[in-house]
Design goal:
Layout: H1 4-11, H2 23-28, H3 38-45, H4 47-60, E1 64-66, H5 74-79, H6 85-102, E2 111-116, H7 137-152, E3 162-168, H8 171-180, E4 189-193, H9 207-215, E5 220-226, H10 233-243, E6 247-251, E7 257-259, E8 264-266, H11 271-284, E9 288-289, H12 297-306
Parallel strand pairs: 1-2, 2-3, 3-4, 4-5, 5-6, 6-9
Antiparallel strand pairs: 7-8
Helix pairs in contact: 4-6, 4-12, 7-8, 8-9, 9-10, 11-12
Zinc ion binds next to loops.
Amino acid sequence: MAKGILNRESLLSGVHVLDGGLASELEYLGADIRGPLWSARVLEEAPEKIVAVHRAYIDAGADIIETASYQVSRMGYAEVGLDPARADGALRNSVALAREAAALYPDRRILVAASLGPYGAALHNGAEYHGNYSCTFADLIEFHRQRIDVLASAPPGLTPDLLAFETIPSLAEAEAVGQALGSHPELTAWFSFTCRDEQHVAHGERLRQCAAAVASFPQTVAVGINCTQPSLVRSLIAELREGSDRTILVYPNSGEGWDAEHRRWTGTSDTRAYGEEAREWFEAGAQIIGGCCRTRPAHIREVRTAV
Ligand SMILES: [Zn+2]
C-alpha cells in the first residue's frame, strides 16, 4: 500500500484509464458466473481466467486494474453457507492475481486497486441500489473494517496500491467506511458512488455532499461515480467538482438497460459512442475513466484513444 502523503499525491499522476467490467468478460471466457458469489467462485475454480481478463484490459490500455473481489466478504460467504474464513484468503488471492497480471508488463506502470463492494452487495438482493439497509451503523463499520484489516496486513508485494470503495449507495455507508479506515491513516482509497439521477446518489443524498464528506478523510485520493447510466455522467462530474477538489473518476455502465423483472440486460452498447462520451467526460473534468457493468476491453480501448 502506498505509504505516506507524498506517495499518495503522486500515485495517480499520469493515470487516466481504469479497466472495465469483470463479469461479462469472465462469461465470455467461459467461466461459470451463476450464483450469488460468482467472482469468488471463479477466484477459487479458475484463477487463470481472472488473470486473462486483467491482461485483456491492460492490453486495451488500462493504467489501473481492479481485483476480482467486489463480492468477497466474511458476511457474504456466511450468507451462502461458506466458511467466512475463506473470504480472507480469497481477498488476498485476488490481489495476488492482479499483481501477477501486472508483472507481465514490466515496461508499464500498472496500479492495482482492491475492489470493495458495499454492504448491500453481500446481501445478494440488490440492496446496494437503494441503500436502505436494516443493519446498524456499527454493523456497517465492522463489515468494512474486516476487509480493510485483511488487506492492510497482507505481506509486502501482495498489497494493493489503493482500496476502491465502489457502488456506494449512501452518505451513511461512505461515512462508515471513513470510520473503518480511521485506524489506518497510511492507506490510500477512492470512493465511488452509484447514482440514481443527475444529482443524487442511489439512497437520495446530493452527490456533492457525499464527495465533500469523503474528501475530508486523509486516505482519499479520488472521488467518483460508477454503476450508473452514462447519460447522467456529465452532470454528476459537476456535482463531484462542487463537493471536492480530489481527482475525479467515472466508470459508468455500458448504456444497456437492466430489466429487473426479467433479470436481464436490454439494448446494446456502441463502443465508439462510449469513446466519444469519454472524450466529453475528460473535457468536463474527469481525470480517470473506465467502465462498470457490461463494459468490455473494446470500450476501454476507445477510452484510451480518447485520452
Ligand atoms: Zn456496474
